[in-house]
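Why do we bother with holo predictions? Because pocket geometry can differ from the apo form. Keep that in mind while you read this record for magnesium ion.
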Amino acid sequence: MENFEDRLQRVMEKIKEEVGKNAFSTWFERISIRQNGENSLAVYVPNKFFGEWFSKNYLPILLKAFRDESSITPDVKILIEESLEDLAEPEELPLKKKQGLCLNLIPKYTFENFVVGKSNEFPYSASFAVANEPGKVYNPLYIYGGVGLGKTHLLNAIGHRTRKIHSDLNIIYISAESFMNEFLKAIRMNTMEQFRKRYRQTFDVILIDDVQFLSGNKESTQEEFFHTFNALFNLNKQIVLTSDRAPKDIEQLQERLRSRFEMGLVVEINPPELETKVAILKKKAELYSISLPNEIAFYIAERIHSNVRELEGALLRIKAISALKNSPITLELVKEALHGFIEERGAKVNPEKVLKEVSEAFKVKLSDLRSRRRFKQIALPRQVAMFIMRTYLGMSFPEIGLFFGGKDHTTVIHAVRKVEKEITKDIYLQEIVENLKKKLFIET
Ligand code: ADP
Ligand code: MG
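The structure, written out:
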């Protein structure tokens, strides 16, 4: 009979092709599969959360791959690798211990206020699991994705929930930028000792927002960050990081810092689909005591593509105008409130449309923009198109790369960052982009 290991190897190769490298390394490289009698498998997973998620999302793929290989669907048992792990919920809460510190958390960003949909289901579950058992499940947890998609919200939600169930722990939320500023100040004021003590000995859960700010910073800052990170990690303290990009895409980041970031679980948060956008609008309306009819929620959600922050902005604008006019929220009122804010031409803005407008704005040929040609006149328009697709259409870097004939996603990242930077300095470019936005998203 054929060797089980050989068969397994082939099955794994197939799965890797099917789910892609990232998902494969997150989910399939962390399990071990053993034969458990004829046509029966034991799948060992690292912990309960992982097991639940795996069963729901990846077990069908595993089964199918085995079936394709041998036309038999095996029985599968999911087992926790370390049977030492205590699966039972604690019987009763431990006696109240001292109250821990809790710094900088933003009160309204809780799990209760976070709407879960397909686009953010995984980051949400991972965050929830980490909040329940800080330091035990995934360390670090690294959440990345575009602006306004809920990273800061999730990070704070972890803090709130941990606070609720582990009230003795010391928790801090801090942006990477503030961390660096504090560090630089400590150097200046000669208070490094306190700084180190504060970060390495005080906190049990440290929530660091926007770590992309570390990139390009002085070696010494990154160095300090690295040592802080290691110290916390070695003490089993929970670290959660967010960023607008994956660790591998942060330029000028020390290699060892990068690999530290990748050591735990790296999850992406995506732009919400229509249903989620509607649900978020309804939730926010509730929070702000706005009465928002369903059809109006749909009307708004269908027209705002970029991110959740803009959804919220639109809602507040509607509320303000409705108060000003002392009138209920009707479709008429919404159209007026969002005039110049959203696309009203009916048709959705798609990447083709962006390309077309960009080619007209820069007076270059559309076919050149999309070709692999590299001459200079094309470079800037192409970068601007990529920037718009990322920032206003919420497309992912790889998606944009693909759209441009299979360019590497790092090229896209580079392009987007360049435009982001140039636009703050170059009035001419600012104007072009403003006009493009008007053309693309505002009624004509
Ligand atoms: P990021 O840090 O990713 O740029 P934020 O966490 O600041 O984004 O989110 C921007 C706004 O959108 C916040 O007001 C946040 O509450 C809201 N938001 C984002 N995602 C959700 C969600 N799934 N449910 C409810 N509100 C959300
Ligand atoms: Mg943020």
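The first helix runs from residue 4 to 19.
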